[in-house]
Design brief:
Elements lengths: L1 H25 L6 E12 L2 E15 L4 E7 L4 E2 L8 H5 L7 E7 L2 H4 L7 E11 L2 E14 L2 E11 L18 E12 L3
Antiparallel strand pairs: 1-2, 1-9, 2-3, 2-4, 3-5, 5-6, 6-7, 7-8, 8-9
């Protein structure tokens, strides 16, 4: 009798473990596609301070119908030797807010489109900068192709629209306007 009871308990534990494993694998998010490039320009009355990162991560969330884009602030590097190396990190408060994130609305119909070619659409985009989130419609150029989508966008942001600030030492130098360019980024659906 005790042996039967123990077998039932062990069987129930094994069943629960298998159920938990199935649930965990069903919730595993799709991986990001890396090696995408983003350019961020800090505008100045006297010129432009341009920074790049080749570490923009992109993935498509089918449940929310959004492209999730993320770049670590410390991966931005200046495109010229005359630009202070830590300027973008300082201005975007990378120590406190290490990530710049974009969520671009993209309907599943566009992702599943069989047509070849490209199209440009104004998409609602949720942007998180210095811990503040704001929405903006931005022009996005899409080129879906089976399990891949390529896209690009160029838009500007004003730091004060995000209640974001510029460090005091950069106040005389910067306008508070950021120009953001993502050119030919791509997400690959990996089954």
């Amino acid at each position: 009798m005790h042996v039967t009871f123990l077998f039932r308990i062990v069987g129930l534990c094994v069943f629960l473990l298998l159920l938990c494993q199935l649930n965990a694998s069903a919730q595993t998010p799709r991986p990001f596609t890396g090696k995408n490039t983003i350019t961020i320009v800090l505008e100045s009355p006297r010129g432009r301070y341009e920074f790049k990162s080749d570490e923009l991560l992109v993935r498509y969330n089918r449940t929310r119908e959004q492209l999730e884009c993320s770049v670590l602030i410390n991966s931005l590097y200046p495109t010229s030797d005359t630009i202070p190396a830590n300027m973008a990190y300082d201005v975007l408060y990378g120590a406190r807010f290490p990530e710049l994130a974009f969520l671009i609305d993209v309907p599943n119909e566009l992702m599943n489109s069989d047509r070849t070619g490209s199209s440009q659409q104004n998409q609602r985009t949720t942007i998180t900068l210095q811990g503040n989130t704001n929405e903006k419609k931005i022009p996005v150029h899409f080129a879906p192709d089976k399990n891949t989508i390529s896209f690009g966008t160029s838009f500007d942001l004003m730091l004060d629209n995000f209640e974001a600030s510029i460090p005091a030492r950069y106040l005389p130098v910067l306008t508070g306007r950021l120009l953001i360019n993502i050119n030919n980024a791509r997400w690959l659906d990996q089954p």
